[in-house]
Amino acid sequence: MSTYHAPLNDIRFALRELAGLEQVGKLPGYEDATIDTVEAILEEAGKFATEVLDPLNVVGDREGSRLLDGIVKTPTGFKDAYRRFAENGWNGLAKNPDFGGQGLPQLVATAVEEMWHGANLAFALCPLLTQGAIEAIELVGSDAQKAKFLPKMVEGVWTGTMNLTEPQAGSDLAAVRTRAVPQPDGSFKLYGQKIFITYGEQDYTENIIHLVLARTPTAPEGVKGISLFIVPKVLVNDDGSLGVRNDVHCVSLEHKLGIHASPTAVLAYGDRGGAVGYLIGEENRGLEYMFIMMNLARYSVGVEGIGIAERAYQRALAYARDRVQGRAPGLDKAVATATILQHPDVRRMLVTMKAYIEAMRAVAYVTGSAIDHAHRDPDQEARKRHQAFVDFMIPIVKGCSTELAQEVTSLGIQVHGGMGYIEETGAAQHFRDARITTIYEGTTGIQANDLIGRKTARDAGAVARLVLAECTKVATDLSKTTDADLKAIGTELASAAQALSGAIEWVVASFGAKTRAAHAAAVPYLRLWGLVAGGWQMARAARIAAGRLTQAQGDANFHRAKIATARFYAESILPQAGGLARSITGGSESVLALADEQF
Ligand SMILES: Cc1cc2nc3c(=O)[nH]c(=O)nc-3n(C[C@H](O)[C@H](O)[C@H](O)COP(=O)(O)OP(=O)(O)OC[C@H]3O[C@@H](n4cnc5c(N)ncnc54)[C@H](O)[C@@H]3O)c2cc1C
Questions:
Q1: Catalytic residue among 441, 505, 571, 589
Q2: Which of 151, 164, 412, 509 has its CA 20 to 30 A from that of 28?
Q3: CA-CA distance, 160 to 242, in Å (whole number)?
Q4: Mean pLDDT of 378-398
Q5: Is 209 helix (H, G, I), strand (E, B) or coil?
Q6: Separation of CA 66 and ligand 1 centre (Å)
Q7: Long-range CB contacts for residues 423-431, cutoff 8 Å, separation at least 24
Q8: Is the pLDDT of residue 1 over 80?
């Protein structure tokens, strides 16, 4: 039996020591984010995750959401948990105070979101999607639209959804066909079908605000002809009261591998005369708005990967401390049997899980801090610099944290042996739930295309080299120290950074010249970046931990473990960088060698 406990020690370390929480709290508008306030928020969120969300996780998996006569019934306890979640103000943590939010930094919201995802991913998706819809309305909605919809959504009284996908339009949103026909009163009527809509229907709230991509009759073909619409499930009167039911209906729910509690809906628009919708922003600019907003959603899905990987690690560790099996090689022969934690291979699996999680957490939190600086830094140049870093890191956070979550949750099953494959232990659920994270909000392939194209080749590698230079600087500093741990970490990091440097130059040179080979290398390049960025942050963490030990400050055991984990990452994980770089620069042509009929 394992209960989720928010990993507060590592979260605090990542927030304060690596992501600079104190500096974020000094940005204009974030003055309320003092260390004490954040500490109280983390404690409360951790309690809510452990006491309310975690116990429902298995219930949600077993019962799933069901559609009965057009009405979705979420699993036992979910509706009540959502009510408590909204009443406690969790929905509006980082939202604009003008609309009832608490205006806290993204960095703080990141730590809290990690806990929701760790405790119950299927539950956490509802607020995540609502957050996306809030972002879109805040970004481009009119003042009247903001006043009408945002306060209720920020409070959590209404939820939000993102309606992009159609049967023929998944990764390629240019293929969207849903039609939006203008009406004399300035509104539109929408006709079409959207599939895979997360929380497209639910029984938590009276209203759902759908954000829908559709084409107007005069729209040009392709990506430049898509507009964004607000389509409420129940129309909202001018005084804010609820009016008549709109013509958008859930026609079925998908049967899925995981996240069973999250209702994934097929929504029919306009089957009964047309669904009333309101254009937001300018016509034909919908996809552009969606991509700005999607940045945060992609980031949040990266944080999902970290949360669920942490949950899998905690469960595996609890099992390994308890399960007795065989004798551990090289230990005291007088001890007849050992827990599996004493077996070197089980330790290898657990430290791999721990190291990936800590590295990805650090990378994500550092990026979260940059998001706050990009919004609020008083210095314009600093804002630009931070924004460039954020834009560069988002496909890495999304792509790599979610891909690593596959490895970590799979190791979680392996640590359990046969019991991991049996549903009762819960390890299998984490593996199944995690599987979607590399697919929605843009698959890993789509993140990697973004990284090689818009983020690396477009500026001829300028930002990529700047980010790598920061990493190399840490590596060089550490390789020069006399501390054996730091020196070893620095040496491995320097060699991985050099491998990455070669890969950056290859991508820049190949993107235009050998387009297909460059795209064949995209995912390994993304993976290489994730590996090195993780090593960079683990090296920073080790250096800080070593400093704290020297000054006899803080929890010495935690700091020693941090250094040992960073050294493991450097010596056992970072060497993969050389292999990845070789496969990028030397192996990409061979990816394309088979003719269609040879597959
Ligand atoms: C549980 C769940 C919840 C979801 N929630 C939502 C939601 O709330 N709202 C919403 O609008 N959508 C949602 N989606 C849809 C999701 O975003 C899409 O499934 C995803 O974007 C991939 O699109 P697709 O399924 O059509 O796959 P495809 O686009 O058909 O991709 C199939 C494969 O081809 C690859 N591929 C496709 N194009 C390229 C390319 N250009 N370069 C390289 N590789 C490529 C992909 O990486 C993938 O491996 C959800 C999906 C699921 C399963």
A1: 441
A2: 151
A3: 16
A4: 98
A5: strand
A6: 23
A7: 425/315, 425/319, 426/2, 426/57, 426/58, 426/315, 427/312, 427/315, 427/316, 427/319, 429/57, 429/58, 429/61, 429/258, 430/308, 430/311, 430/312, 430/315, 431/258, 431/312, 431/406
A8: no
Q: Which tokens belong to 423?
A: 């549903």
pLDDT of residue 294: 87
Distance from residue 130's CA to the centre of ligand 1 (Å): 20
Token digits for 260? 């069973």
Q: What is the dihedral of CA 437, 438, 440, 445, to 10 degrees?
A: 170
Probe target for ligand 1 pocket from 168, 194, 443, with the most ligand atoms within 8 Å of CB = 443
Residue 450, both tokens: 């973004």
| 76-82 contact pairs (CB < 8 A, 24+) | 78/123, 78/204, 78/261, 79/203, 79/204, 81/52, 81/53, 81/56, 81/123, 82/123, 82/126, 82/156, 82/204, 82/205
Q: Which two tokens stand for residue 508?
A: 């820049």
In this prediction, residue 140 has a pLDDT band, given cuts at 50, 70 and 90, of: very high
441 given a catalytic annotation: yes
Work out the number of other CB atoms within 10 angstroms of the CB of residue 388.
Answer: 18
The alpha carbon of 166 and the centre of ligand 1 are apart by a number of angstroms equal to 10
Give the total residue count for the chain: 599
- Please give the DSSP secondary-structure letter assigned to residue 49: I
Task: Look at residue 69 and tell me whether its pLDDT is greater than 90.
Answer: no
Ligand 1 atom at shortest distance from the alpha carbon of 162: 9
Residues with CB under 6 A from ligand 1: 129, 162-165, 170-171, 196-198, 256, 264, 436, 439-440, 442-443, 445-446, 449
Report yes or no: 20 and 369 within 8 Å, Cβ to Cβ: yes
Whether the pLDDT of residue 334 is over 90: the answer is no
CA 446 to ligand 1 center in whole angstroms: 9
Element at 546 (helix H, strand E): helix 522-550
Q: Kindly give the number of the ligand 1 atom that is closest to the alpha carbon of 256.
A: 1
Host H or E run for residue 371 = helix 344-376
Residue among 260, 266, 267, 440 whose CB has most ligand 1 atoms within 8 A, to mutate: 440
Structure tokens at 213: 């991509």
Q: Which 3 state secondary structure label does DSSP give 591?
A: helix
* Rounded distance from Cα 196 to ligand 1 centre (Å): 9
CA 90/CA 155 separation, integer angstroms = 9
C-alpha span between 129 and 202 (Å, rounded): 13
What's the pTM?
Answer: 0.97
pLDDT tens-digit map of 441-496: 999 999 999 999 999 999 999 999 999 999 999 999 999 999 999 999 999 999 99
Pocket test for ligand 1, best of 165, 257, 515 (most atoms within 8 A of CB): 165
